[in-house]
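So, is this right?
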Amino acid sequence: MKFSIKVVSLFILFIFVAYALPLYVDNGERTAPSSSIARNEQASIDENEGYPLPVTGYESYIGQPIAAYTAKHGDPIRVGKAYGGSEWWVFGTNAADYIQIGVKDDIIRSLYILGNKIEVGMFTIGMTQENVLDEGYLARNFQLSAGDTPYELALSKKQIERTPLIQFENDSFVMLLFDEVTKTVYGMYFLSNEALLDLGYYSVVSDEDYELGRDDWERNVAADEENVLQIKNILGVLRERGGLPLLQESEELVTAAGELMPSETDINDFTATFTLSDLRIEKKLTEVVPDRRTAFVFAEEFYSIPSFFLELLQADNVIFDEYLTHYAVAANEHYQLILLSEQSVDP
């Protein structure tokens, strides 16, 4: 009988020790979760915390009068027309100081920055994604309002990698523009809530759709001419940044571009699609610059040149080919066209 009691007692003691021992093991001896688990746990926390960030840099100009910028940085090189009753105020000429500011009713709506010597705040041109993550996490979803209407934006995995968003407390954002080849930031695009929604680049996933209203925007010759100037400016900045020779305008290519681009009175979906088909562009290049390597970029329905370059730089592009030295740019109310060729070889 005593033996049975001892056996039962020992069994109960063993069960107690087996269950109680983990409670008294020192925390330092526990197995740490894997890094992937830790990152997933942090990501789930980060999705609900951290944004919007405090205003510390160029985002502070969003919503301010343009006079607040010029008082500190001087007058622009030019003021050009934009669609929708807006203007582009352009400052700087090269890879160190180029910036163009979107203004409507004398209020700053956006700042498109390519100058790598411009001190804009916590983010800088040349940063890697790891550098960016040191400043905070990259979120997938954002809540914002335009007027009294709330909206939600959702970024794709590709957009988080190439054009992530950072939100600030003053109803502004910055898009960090990553170079697909170097994997570093080549530019920054600060935008107000409304300007970001007008861009139409990220998906609106809220119940309320955002109406772009672009059909109501008047297209005009002055805005088209400003688009041509911006394409030339930005091509120069990007090639300078890449250590490439600046493109030189070619009379032959200018003539070809003018002949290819239909006049505004002739434009309709059929004539423009036929006139600007890849085959006709290639044939025209062969006619005007025979025995030279050529390339071209053709784009449709971009309402701003920053949005045009957002798409253009999503992959390694012909604009960075070193052998291309000459170019021409044409634009009208519907299309943008860049023709490129190598230097002619004298016989």
In short: Confidence is low (pLDDT under 50) at residues 1-8, 10-14, 19-48. The first helix runs from residue 2 to 24. The CA atoms of residues 111 and 132 lie 19 Å apart.
